[in-house]
Structure formats: C-alpha cells, structure tokens
Design brief:
5-stranded antiparallel sheet; Alpha-Beta Plaits; 4-stranded antiparallel sheet; 25 helices; Multidrug efflux transporter AcrB transmembrane fold
Length: 762
Amino acid sequence: MATFLYKLGRFAFRRRKLVALLWVALLALAGFAASSAPAATSSSFSMPGTEAQKAFDLIDERFPGTSADGATARVVFKAPTGGKMTDKANKAEVRKVVAELKTSSDQVADVVDPYQVKSISQDRTIAYTQVSYKVSGMELDEKDREALTEAAEQAEDSGLTVEIGGDALQAAPETGASEVIGVAIAAVVLVITFGALIAAGLPLLTALIGVGIGVSTIAALSSVLDLGSTTATLATMIGLAVGIDYALFIVSRYRAELAEGRDREEAAGRATGTAGSAVVFAGLTVVIALVGLAVANIPMLSKMGFAAAGTVVIAVLIALTLIPALLGFAGKRVVGRRARKAAAAASAAGNGASGGNAGTGENAEAGRQGTLDKHGHKHAAEKPNMGTRWARFVLRHPVAVLLVGVMGLGAIAVPAASLELGLPDDGSQPTSTTQRKAYDLLSDGFGPGFNGPLLVVVDGGKVEADGTAKKVSKLDGVAAVTPATYNKAGDTAMITVIPKDRPSSAETEELVHTIRDTSGDNVQVTGATAMNIDFSQRMNDALVPYLALVVGLAFLLLMVVFRSVLVPLKAALGFLLSVVAALGAVVAVFQWGWLGSLFGVEQTGPVMSMMPIFMVGVVFGLAMDYEVFLVTRMREAYVHGERPAQAIVTGFRHGARVVTAAAVIMIAVFAGFIGSSEQMVKMIGFGLAIAVLFDAFLVRMAIVPAVLALLGGKAWWLPRWLDKALPSVDVEGERLREMDGEKAAGSDGRDEDDKERELVRA
C-alpha cells in the first residue's frame, strides 16, 4: 500500500493543476446539484418490525387520508384569573382564532373547535384546539408558522394566555456562532502547530472543500433518499473533524520528510505513502463504525451513518490527492519564515564547511536537528520535545500512570449506571419556550399523561373494539379512554388512551407493555409515546451486536496494521473505557443537570435513545484514528531495530504534538455544535467532544504508553501462523526504505526519477 500511495502522492504533486481542477469541478458540480434540488425536509421516521410501526402501517391502509407524518399544533388557551374558558367573551375569542387558522393556509388539513369536541379542562380554565397540517413541520412555510403566532398574539390582546405546542413550530436546527468559533479555534491550533499560515490553512481549506462536496451531495439527494436536514448537520460535524485531522497528519509528515533532506516531490510522495497509509486505515475504522449503524435496522439512523461515512471517504481521498497537489503550489512557504531563515543559515554554514555538499535551503534544517543514518533515521541526540519528555515520564512510572488513568475514567463513568433513555418531546424544551409552556398548561388542565396519548388499533369490528376499550379502561395507570373511531368498512377501530403519568415515565412504559401483553394479536399500541418506547428498546437490543460487529472488524483491521494481537486488544479495551466515561459525563450534564447552565442545558431529561449507539460508532472510529497515527510511528521504529521502550519515545517524539493538535481541533469542532438549537445535535456535540478529550489525552496519550511499557516486546507478539495468514499492507513504508537501498547501490547513486527532479529544479 505504501508504494501505491507514494506513487499517487508524487503524481498529485506533479499534476497538481489537474488534480486541483478536478476537485474544484466536483465541488462546483455538487453545489449546482444541491441548489437545483428541493430543500431538505425532516426525514420520515420508521422502525420496521416493531408493533408501533405495524399499527401505523395498518392505519395508513385502513384509514386512507389519515397521515401520521403531517405536522400538528396545539393552541392552548388559559382564562384570566377568576375567569372561565366557557365565558361568552372567551368563547368568542377562541372561535375567532379557530376560524382564522382554518383559512390561514392551503396546508391546513383541519382545525377542531374545542367547544364541539369538549377539549376543555374540568375546572373550565384551560382549553385547546388542535391544528392538523398536510405536510411535516420541516415542510411548512414560514407564513404558516407566522399565522399561528399572530393568531395567538391577537387572542392574548383580549386577556387570554395563549401558548403553542406540537411540531408545527419545528424549524431547521441552528448551530449559532459557536460552530464558527470551533473552526476558528482549529485555525489557531494549526497556526501554533505549524508556525506557518500556508501550512495551517491547507487542512482547513481541504476540510471545507470535502465537507462542501459531502453536504452538497446530501442536499442534492435529500428529497430522493429522504435524508433530512439533521443528516447534513452530523455529516458536517464529522467531516470537518476528520478532514482537518487527516490533512494535518499528511502535512506534518511532509514537513518532517523535508527536514530529513528530501526534495519537495519526494517528500510529498513519502508523506502520502507513510502517513497516508495511516489515514486510509484510520478512515476505514471510521467508515466501519458509521456504516455499522445499520445493524439497528432503523432507516433514519442508517442513512445518517451512510451519509457521514461518505463524507469521511471524501476526506480520505482529498488527503491523499488534493493535499499533495496543494503542497506543490505552496512551495517553501509550507515552512514558517523563521524556520526557512534558520535552514538557509544552516545551509550556508554547511556549504562553507563542506564545499557545497550540504542540503538545499529548504532541507538543511535537518543539519541542526541531529545527524541522520543511512536509512534517514534521526538519532536521539536531537533536543527532546514535550512528547519525548512525557513518554520518558510514563516509562519511569507506568503503573502509576495506568492506575490514575483507569481510576479517573472509572469515576467519571459512574453516572452511566443511572442512564435513562428516551426521545425528546416538548417537555424537554427550555421552560422559556412556548412549546414547553403549552406542554405544562395541558398537564395542569388535563393530567400529565395527556401530552403522550396512546393509540390502540383494533383489527376487528364493534364487538372487539368495545371489549378492548372496556378492558383497557380498567388497567392501572389509565386516566381516560375515548370512544372508538371506525373506518368506513367498520372492520378497524382506533381508541385513544390517556395515561395517568407523563409520556417519558417508567409507569407509562409499563402500561404500554401491559396493554400489549393482555390483548390479542389483533390489538396493537402505537402513537408517539409507544414509538419512543419501541425505539429505545430497539437501540438497547442492537447495542451488543453492534459492538461485536464494529469492534470485531476493527480488531482484525488493526491486527493487519500493527501485526500484533495485544495492541488491537488494548486499543479496543481503552475505547470501551473512554466511551463509558463519556456516557457518564452526558448523564451528569443532560440528565442530572450538573454544570448544565455552562453548556446551555435549560431542561434535564432522559438521554436520547440513539445517543449510546451513535456515540459508540463515531467515537470508536475517531479513537482508532489516534491509535493508528500514534502507534504506527512506534511500530515503524520498532520494526527498524529500536528497543520497545525507545520505540515508544520515538513515536511520541514524532506524533505527540500532532495528535494533540488533532485532538484539540476535533474537540473544538464538536464543541461548536453544543450551541445548536436542536437537542439531539447539542447532546451529540457534547458527547463527542468529551469522548475525544478522554480518549486522546487519557487513553491514547497515557494509558496506551503505560500498557506498552509494561508489555515490552510482548506487545508486538503475533503467532507465526497468523502472521502468514494476514495480508501484508506495508503501513510502515518498508518497501520505500528498500527503494532507498536500491538507489544507493546504483552506479551513480541516482535513478531516473532523481535525474528528472534535478531537471525540474533546474
């Protein structure tokens, strides 16, 4: 692989105009397709095989014209203090609102009169009207939402308190300025890392190009594939993070190759062949983790995973082709001005002392960083950096570092034992929103369970429906049962059941299971509350198979990369520790409310059902990035003759600073999404940011070297039979070093490529 990528890197460097033009053309094509496609809508939610979904499908079949996907709004009215909603003036005002909403838009399917359907509380102080739309909340025009709010404002002028609930007010999620701040922090980190604006700008530029292509493609296909706007948001989050990181590793290795005395084209080829190999395998682990989300058999989640995986593939391809091309355009400016001056001075000194046999100005920096052996290895005589000093500290105290890291993450993981799963509704909205106020008014007037009614579908006639309604009404936890509604054929009935407890409570979940267990096969329970319960159950059931699939495939992949059994095992166990700790932090902040105000969490509640499996998928892929990038340099040093302990130091000397910068960038990008108005995006942004923090700095930078130090040479053990069975992919670039030897054995020490490069430089 290293040889193929080496040739690809050199080709991209030489044909940089063509490569850059192709990527710009792809970006323009994707942008044109996105601008011509219909706007993204909310993705339809379905869970094949669940009882709630079967009931919805039966409703669509037996009750044509009844759509479960249409938006709804509940306009809730509360009478002034001392008044009643049945007062003549209040009644007239409510009916005026109903009349206005009926004619407000062609998208309105129905508006009910609360005085006809008797949707008035027992104390007569609260009433509501339900507005049904023909399209989903994301598809509603802004004028439809304005009509709702204007009608409410007019009613409030008469002294009524009016609040609006439901999904009709749902709009596209907003991330706010914090997302831009995240990218700005990434730019600052890159400038500090490279000390050159050009080198710092390349990862940002290529990441934005990759995200632009990926998100534009998602937008172009959103209507056809029912992708939804949240899919693009998550693809942006992951694409930015990995795009910057992958480019960062290629550029960093390119500068290191320059410092070892190679010319620019050769350095680009070497960087793509070595760091590019690590990028390919790191990208594969991320893709495996994202595509593996399909195990849950929830179309929405599968689409999110596939879309994000596609963005990761684009990021890998850009790192392998566009980065070498742009390095060709950058020239010497990829190195900072101070470093170029120092290199020029060292070159001049070398020319004076050796008659002109020192390196060129851009490469002579190697002369002041220590001597090189015949293979191009730097000797340890160079000045230790922070990575070197930290690695030596861990080597001196491996047991202490291991215990502190494991115990610290274990303590943070404790809240994960109290994890409660659910899906957000208006009850999880901030208390300042009209949706939350409407939710609370309905709870006060009609009971906590009114916000989460259950829909019982009976596949039978009047006798079966009446019997089911009578049986359900006698169950504990039922507040009310409405009369059955029949289809035209009279062979199917719908019964609405109001629980006594709030939708997300354990009591309501138990009621759903009780109705299902005590009813026949012709009775099914559905509705938003039942769908949430089934969704949580589906997530729980899929977590273990998903872990087995993703970790198993990645374990095999890492065995091929590292030629070891214990190193991949250690990587997987470290990941499990960091992801459980991250879940503990999510529970503490979003469920318990610890430091909630710091992260903009105004309302605590259950952790979203998809959070654990989504975090496992994404974090596993990202965690393996650092494992591959850091440990590959250790493996490279070990196979070329260094002792296990020295190989750890070498790996940290070359990789610690870059991995640290990559982790800080990822944390900044993910943390930028905490400012989103969408609760799911906010929670995922926080979870991924904290998981990267734990995994990069506690697991990969502390626990991993401590374990490797304790294992010594045994860390790289692999049975002979397994070594023969596994394919050889040459991630360390051994074939490239053999090429060096072949060149050195030539008659004049140069091959045709060397001569061609000299002509190019001339």
